[in-house]
Every structure is written in structure tokens, then in C-alpha cells.
Amino acid sequence: MSDVTFQPALYYEVTARDNNEACRNYEQTFTVAEFYSNDGIHCYVQCGLCRHNMEILTATLLDPQPEVS
Ligand SMILES: [Zn+2]
């Protein structure tokens, strides 16, 4: 488990790594430019190929927060 923590209902820039050895994305790191934290607990970045949840490596609070239309 990663030790990245989120506050609820905020946008973060997140980097995440695929730890699924069976996946073509294995050990690749992805950046999510606008990741919404929802309730701050259920924060998952899912691999588009294997559908596993990636390990969240870093989370940087966006400042300013993006405008939501
Ligand atoms: Zn994967």
C-alpha cells in the first residue's frame, strides 16, 4: 500500500505505477493531471489494460483547483 493520503473533494495531480506483472504496462508510471479525490479514501487509478488498481506514488494538490463546470 502507498502512504499517499488525500483530502476529500479536491483535485490532485497523481502519478501511479502498474504493479501487475502480467500487464503490458508493468512497472510503467502514469500521470493523471486532474485526479478527483472523491471522499478522500476511495482513490484509485485503474489501469486501462488490465483493470487493476495501480499503486499511487505521488499526489500533488492542484493549486489553484480546476474549475468544474
Ligand atoms: Zn495494467
**Dominant shape:** elongated
- Indicate the mean pLDDT: 95
Determine the number of helices (DSSP H or I, runs of at least 4 residues): 0
Q: Would you tell me the structural class of the helices and strands?
A: mainly beta
User: How many strands?
Assistant: 3
Largest sheet: 3 strands, antiparallel
Unreliable spans are none
Describe this structure in words.
The structure is a single chain. With 69 residues, this protein is an all-beta fold. It has no helices and three strands. The site of zinc ion (ZN) has 8 residues, from loops.
Keywords:
69 residues, mainly beta, three-stranded antiparallel β-sheet, binds zinc ion
Can you give me a brief rundown of this structure?
The protein is mainly β and about 70 residues long. Helices cover about 0% and strands about 30% of the residues.
Summarize the helices and strands and which ones pair or pack.
Blueprint: E1 11-17, E2 29-36, E3 55-61
Antiparallel strand pairs: 1-2, 1-3
The chain binds zinc ion.
